Amino acid sequence: VSPDETRVHRLFARATRRALTLAIVEALAWGVAVATVSLPAGSAVAALVLAWRLRRAGRPQIVETIDRRTGAGLNVFVTADELLRGSLAAKPYVRERVFGDAARASADANLGSLFPISFALTALLVAAGAWMLTSTTFWRAPAARVARRVLSASSGSVAATGAVHVTTTTEPPSYTGEPPRTAVDPTEIAAIEGSALTVTVDAHSTAVTVDHDGAVRSLARGADGRFVDRIKLTRTGYYSIETTDGARRVTPIVVSPDALPSVRVSTPGRDLVFADANQRVAFEARARDDFGLRALSLHYTKVAGSGETFRFQEGEIPLAIARTNAREWRGTGAQSLADLHLEQGDMLVYRALAADNRPGAAPASSDAFFIEISGLAAGAADGFTIPQEETRYALSQQMLVVKTGRLDQRRGSMAAAEFGEAALNLAIEQRMIRAEFVFMLGGEIADEEVEAEQSSELQEGRLQNRGQRDLRDATVAMSQAEKLLTGSSTREALVAERAAITALQRAFARDRYILRALAGQTDLDPKRRLTGNLSAARNWRREVPAAQENRRAALLQDLLAGLGAIHDSTRSAQLVVLAGEALRLDPTSAVLRQAATDLQRIADRWPIAANDERRQSVAGVASVVARALSQTLAAAPLAPPFAAPSLTGAFADALVSRTKKSGPGGTR
Amino acid sequence: MIAAACRGMAVAIAIAALIDPSFPMAATGRARIALMLQQPQTPVAREAHDAVARAVRREFDLAPGRDDAADALVVVGAAYRGLTVPERQRVYTVTAAPPSGEPAVRISAVRGPREAPPATKIHLEVDVDRNSAATGSSTLVVRNDVGVELARASQVWSDAHRWTASLDVPPIGLPPWHLRAEVGAALGEHEVTDNAADVLVEGSAPAHVLVFDARPSWAATFVGRALEQDPRFAVVGVSYPSRGFAVTTAGIASLSGIDLESIRAIVVGGLDQLTSRDAETLVRFMRDRGGSVILLPDALSDLRVAGRWLPVPSAAEVLVEKPARAVGEAPLPPFDVSEMLTLDASSPARALVRTSGTNVPLITIAPVGDGRIVVSGALDAWRYRSNDGAAFDRFWQAIVAGLAMSSPPAVDVDVLPRVAAPGEDVQVRVRVRRSAIASRGTDALEISGSMTGSDAPIRFWPDATPDSFHASFVAPSRTGALRVAVEAAGQVASASLAIDARARTAAPEGPPLSLLAESHRGIDVTPGRIPDLVRRLRSDIGAPTVRVERRPMRSVWWMVPFAACLSLEWWLRRRRGER
Fold first, then answer.
1. Whole-angstrom distance, CA of residue A14 vs CA of residue A111
2. Which chain A residues are Cβ-neighbours of B399 within 8 angstroms?
3. 3-class SS at A420?
């Protein structure tokens, strides 16, 4: 074999390999591209393309291509191929001449241009593109990141049409001394009551409409191209912005009221009973406020008289104020009771008042205590029957604690019998005190009218109701103490007695019952009693007030229905509308505020969020609103108690008739 | 001669064609096979159903669905679902169940009310079963028909194979409320068709309740007020503050003057002033109307007075210094009470509320005829009515609402399942209360039914229970909400039915489907052995000999001799020179 023949043979072999490889690659690439739609279709396309390309990758076709494209002409490669395959016989010199010409021509043959890779490359690019388009997981997240970056970079100048950005400046009331706060696109605006809120809106639209707690108005564009609104914050609510190009933003506003000052009388800080008015009492009051105090004073009410005719006289005891700082004050003072002209049986009720810097704010009041002037040093005088002991706190659980404590300390120095006798006396005393409280609770009341008056107190508020409960707790603790004292267990009795005091202090803490026994026989005022003429009694038709529909539940149901109607093609503005609906429903509800904030956040992300993320986010908000709705709805009715009423009824009848037959012992 | 014969033959053919005589004769027919696909329609079951249909159609007439007149019935499903088949009919089954070793959780039952008042939670109890291969935890979610999650509960599986989840579901939108309970698939579970179940709850109108105070009593007054401020009730009140004087809300003079048919529950206070006539009315209300009576005594003596005429339990008076907690069955809220009557809750009564800790019955319920009587021993619970967010009010609202809903209407219509897939069998059950329609026990009851969007009437059949009827029909293919209306003796009642292609009905696992085949002389095969089933059908179900009616003159081939006779006759005449 001549070198020329070898060279030509190699050319043919390389060309065939290349053509085959490119055909396979191109077929596979098209198949992969179509497989994005359907795998069977992809396989079919790959097979078809391969079959089509292989028709042109046969040896004769390849040789013909080389012959045509290299410019050798005259079928020199075709002849060489026939000679190589033995299909053509030729004399040696002719053969040598043909292979020589072919070898020379093959030097110019460039397989890259003869069998270009461009077709296979195009197919590969198409396949890659198709897979990139369908496999969103590869590119969506980076694309979203890029989009966010672009959006945030352009936020300063409101690059995107339809976007609305808000800058809020909250200026607390001047008396608080708090600095202003600025936020950009806040999810929630928190402020002190009376703060001034400045809202600056950056938007491309021609006009902006704002809605603050239902008050809707349009804003005009300012000289700097922005829309500015100023409002005073007085209550928790919402602030909604809508532009003419459809952009919306809803922001919850949480307004915290300026808390009332906390004030208490630390000295004496308890009720006092004096035998006469020749006393001088020292007072101390302490007050604290969250932003600063303006005043602290001690006020009294002198109560004179008895029965149903009392006289009241108001006054103030001067205090020397010591300021620890602007928020914490202490006031001290002293008052001679004689100067107040208190007489036997009179009473002085005193309380401290503190005011903060809020303009027009009412002062806060401490618990009230009283000082009573009683000759026997017994506050209830003839209203109670206790051993006549000259003790200041004759009628008080506190005194019993003192006595029990003293007795307990003397336990070692006393004979057992003597100690037992003393403990028993204290038990009797405890029982008497308890009896008075039980009487006060109305334990034996049979009169319905009196009962009605008592029940109205329960209706008036939880405070009174709690007071009754505390009084009841006190009597229970007193019973326990009595039992322990009877058994000479003074140490354990002390615990129960102190528990009774704690309960009594709770009961009398604020809305105090002022207990005064009648000093003597007093005429009752019949106009103050429930009386009437029975002859005028007749049938009466009572009008039943219309029951209130559960409006909150209906609104929450509407909100949930709106959330349920959201789908992938919903516009983000619809989400903001729902956020506004949640806030309008109850801006004071933390759950609904959070739902509104979440909806606004979802709306912001809506254009770039994947469908799964959209669905999950909305479902999360719906789940929270559903829980809030569940709390608003009435409890489910009792399930039917008997599965087959007729059968159970017949069974019950049979049981009853059998019981009757068997004689007495029935349920009635 | 020939021409005449031809003419006569043509005339004979024409006359015979006009007469069109029929000839009955015996022939070999095709057997009819009914093919039924049970719910739930799993993919495996659907494939098996289609394969059977393809194989059977070649040799038999195929009737889709249930057909009692068919020669045989082939049922494709996972388990026996209580299908009743005529004794004479052969049944063949294809059991298409997941492999026994595959983890599986399923909803086997959903218990919920048929109706619920608006703005009220719907209490559902869902039984979730698992097999031994399913471990870990399961989460149950209840959604509405548009997929909003309304309630959720979770369970970590230990030894138990059944979990009963109690959920209070807030309804959204207008009734009827279509709810769907879904339990998440266990790890490795592939067949999830039975992991969901649908429920349809109708809205109910305000319940009419009568508050009857024989004398003013705190208990009845405050229970009445709790009901009056709830829009779910329409309350009528009668109270007698003094002899001969009544305070009413609807101009009613006495208990006997009230149309008890419109009332669903009666709250009775001031029992010591109850008269025998009042008691007689109450008993009639319970026995004939099926209503509920709630007795609220103020003291033991009150209960003793009521006990002269009404079936009340024995009681003992208890007074505690500190209020005790009274705890009721879910969903009743607990409340406080210090003065109480402890009641005897032995059968047939049962305790609805007990004291916390001591577990003593405080409120009992007992059946009386078709109705029920509730006795409250919580004497001074009204004193603590503002505690715990008005728990007293909520308690009585929940209990009276439940009792009112237990009182049956004049015509009670129930549809099963309430959410059906197109083509699914739907059962309708009707119960008529004769006392409400002024009909004597011997009078015949006329009952008719129809469905919205369909002209076809629903045919009812009497049940074994008197005045009860049932009917069944195939759910239409059109999805959406429908109403099944029933008229009985002039009274019209209706029930809702939802048609949903994804409908799932909770059903217990039940006995194997093969039992149905064994008891009806058939065989049970797996989806892979359908050729065996077809072979067996071929051998068991022979082609029937049928009497057929033949009408030979209807054959078009008679035209040939008819035309030939006329042509020959014409040709012969022409040949003879005749016209």
1. 8
2. 637-638
3. helix
A450 in contact with chain B, both atoms CB, cutoff 8 A: no
Distance from C-alpha of A346 to C-alpha of A370, rounded to nearest angstrom: 10
A472 pLDDT band, cuts 50/70/90, is: confident
What pLDDT, in 10s, does the model give residues B279-300? 999 999 998 889 999 999 999 9
CB contact set of B67 (below 8 Å; sequence gap of 6+): B32, B34, B73
| Percentage of chain A lying above the pLDDT 70 cut | 80
Contacts of B216 in chain A (CB under 8 A): 448
pLDDT of residue A245 exceeding 70, the answer is: yes
Q: Note whether A128 contacts B: Cβ–Cβ < 8 A.
A: no
pLDDT of residue A137: 58
Residue B192 vs residues A623, B98, B145, B195, B512: alpha-carbon distances, Å: 24, 10, 19, 5, 19
Instruction: Answer yes or no: do A637 and B367 touch at CB < 8 A.
Output: no
Distances (CA, A) of A344 to A24, A337, A386, A578: 120, 12, 20, 69
Burial of B23 (0-12, 13-18, 19+ CB in 10 A): exposed
Cα–Cα dist A170/A191, whole Å: 7
Q: State the pLDDT at residue B363.
A: 95
Let me know: does A538 contact B154? Beta carbons within 8 Å: no
H or E stretch including A244? none
> Cβ distance B254 to B273 under 8 Å?
no
A22: which 2 tokens? 């490119």
Calculate Rg over the CA atoms of chain B.
34
- ipTM of model over 0.85: no
Q: Are B248 and A541 inside 8 Å of each other by CB?
A: yes
What are the pLDDT digits (tens) for B203-214? 999 999 999 999
Question: Residues A527-563: pLDDT tens digits?
Answer: 656 667 777 778 888 888 888 888 899 999 999 989 8
Q: How far is CA A8 from the centre of its chain?
A: 85
